[in-house]
Amino acid sequence: MDIARMREFALSYTQAWSSQNPESVASHFAENGSLQINENPPSVGRTELTETAKSFMTQIPDLALTMDDLSINGDGFIYRWTLRGTNSGPNGNGNSVEISGFEEWTMNREGLILESKGHMDLDDYQRQLSAVAP
Questions:
Q1: Do 125 and 99 form a contact (C-beta atoms < 8 A)?
Q2: Whole-model pTM?
Q3: In 3-state terms, what secondary structure has residue 64?
Q4: Residue range 34-70, pLDDT digits in tens
Q5: Per-residue confidence at 2, pLDDT binned at 50, 70, 90?
Q6: I need a surface site. Which of 6, 48, 70, 103 has the fewest CB within 10 A?
Q7: What are the domain boundaries of the chain?
Q8: Would you report the helix, strand and coil content of the chain in percent, each value rounded to 5?
Q9: Which residues contact 97 (CB under 8 A, 6 or more apart)?
Q10: Which of the four CATH numbers 3.10.450.50, 3.40.50.10730, 3.50.4.10, 3.40.630.30 does domain 3-130 have?
Q11: Average pLDDT over residues 111-118
Q12: How far apart are CA 31 and CA 16, in angstroms?
């Protein structure tokens, strides 16, 4: 897949994360696709992927993702993003959250994500979620 088509795909993926529709995020993955965040166990298959997206969207109902960059990485792609929002979900404290990260994508022949290895500073993310709001 060429970089121009991948940019369109990545923009669609970005919009899906900002949509409050977790199924839309999962639809960007192959049926048996996976998303692994750091060293945590991967979410495999669209049902688990939907639940993973839903957990972020529930915690941060105004979640807005921005695509910072997309680049070719061997046979795959590196998708760089920034997440912004407010921890106002269940038991939320109103904290603003801003965290950047990236995903290493391996695509299938149909142009969907077969494997995504996500990287973000989970300690900083948890600190922002749980800090006492000003």
A1: yes
A2: 0.93
A3: strand
A4: 999 999 999 999 999 999 999 999 999 999 999 999 9
A5: confident
A6: 48
A7: 3-130
A8: 35, 40, 30
A9: 60, 83, 84, 85, 86, 87, 125, 128, 129
A10: 3.10.450.50
A11: 98
A12: 17
